[in-house]
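User: I've been going back and forth on whether these two constructs are worth ordering. Before I decide, could you fold them both?

Assistant: Sure. I'll take them in the order you sent them. The first construct and its structure tokens:
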Amino acid sequence: MYANVVLGISHDEFEKELSEIKNKKNVKFDVDLDADDLRELVKRYKDVYKRLNINIPDKPEEQLETAIEAVFKSWNTPRAVKYREVSHITGLKGTAVNIQSMVYGNYNENSGTGVCFTRNPSNGNKELFGEYLMNAQGEDVVSGIRTPLNINEMAEKNPEVYKELVDTTTLLEKEM
């Protein structure tokens, strides 16, 4: 994801390598690869960088700084501009960056990721609005790679997490 979003390397460069290994092992899902397969995948990913003559910064601080810059630059991408236009979102000066500790959303079926709003972005109504995926990373929700679930489905599938999310967003609305 860093390579794609920050360094501008096509996601297809990496997906090709992953697909080749899965085909070679005759498996359908990434999680069916073993440790040796993943070692080979890392080597192949490093070869992509070498072939394209692109280096990943060694220092985590520099990686974070370039990732933050990419978020700010994303404000003016054609996709973001079109989204604001279609959604009738006007008068905003830019986007925000939140830095937080993360857990692996793709660790297992009890892990997940999502995007939610405390208000419906289409009409401004005060209601929980968003999407989520289990066993996925954040980019999976917004990139179109997988089809996310409506956030309200979480109430049935994982009621404890949904209640915590509702409590948190309610508090956020109250504090704003």
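The second construct, handled the same way:
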Amino acid sequence: MEKRLFGRTGMQVSPLGFGGAEIGFEQVDASVVEKLLGDALEAGLNVIDTAECYSGSEELLGKSLAGKRSQYYLFTKCGHERGPGFVDAWEPDKLEKSIDRSLRLLKTDYLDLIQLHSCSEAVLKKGEVIDALAKAKKAGKTRFIGYSGDGQDALYAIKCGAFDTLQTSVNVADQEALELTLPLAAQQGMGVIAKRPIANAAWLSRTKPANDYIVPYWERLKQLGYDFINGKNGQAIEVALRFTLSVPGVHVAIVGTTKPGRWRENAAYVSRGPLSKDTFAEIRQKWKSVAKDTWVGQV
């Protein structure tokens, strides 16, 4: 995969990144994680993104990546207590403990990026969470600091000028960021990570999904009625993934999977480059004609 300059950080990142949520939440066996990561690295991927609250994700990655630290950039997130649910933990001492725990579990001396995980504008404005990450950076625990989130919270995070990177939802069913935040992030030279880049493949569910997390995308896609999601699933994933990576300002798309071999398929899709201008424009026009004001970025 051809690498992209990750904003002002200077990192040369692969357009496809490994997302660590699924392996943690689904409690994937360590042997499967080793296979997943082996395939991903061999396919040219060099970005791994996880979070302290992704159940056992950091532990699994730390065990599986031993001896390979020079082959990838390692990103994680802080701001929520470990365990079921997402309980906010924005106190500076909790953030410091979280970062130290992530370093220990990931078996590394430093992170390439530590991100605040869906932190509200109100909390950001107090300044303590930003100071905590700046302290970690000064101490050499992380090379860069970033913000992960959406909507007006993300817009403030960009405007405040404290962060090197932005991670936000960008996909065929979630396009608010294309106008609200991405242009400003590009102006400021921020590295941009697209999360949920294939809209959780919500089109695969013929009936309303039991998983509330993907219901908004499922409902939106029913109304958007894109032609490409009615064909073969591989084609739908390819178009969706290439759409996200065709968006101006996006440097890397984070995809999670528990299926060995999926990385080679995804890498093949990405190798075909951006969508044609006409196909990209058709998807954008469909969104603009159908999307409602309530279709905001999904955390």
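Notes on the second construct follow. The two ends are 28 Å apart (CA to CA). The chain has one domain: 4-199+248-275.
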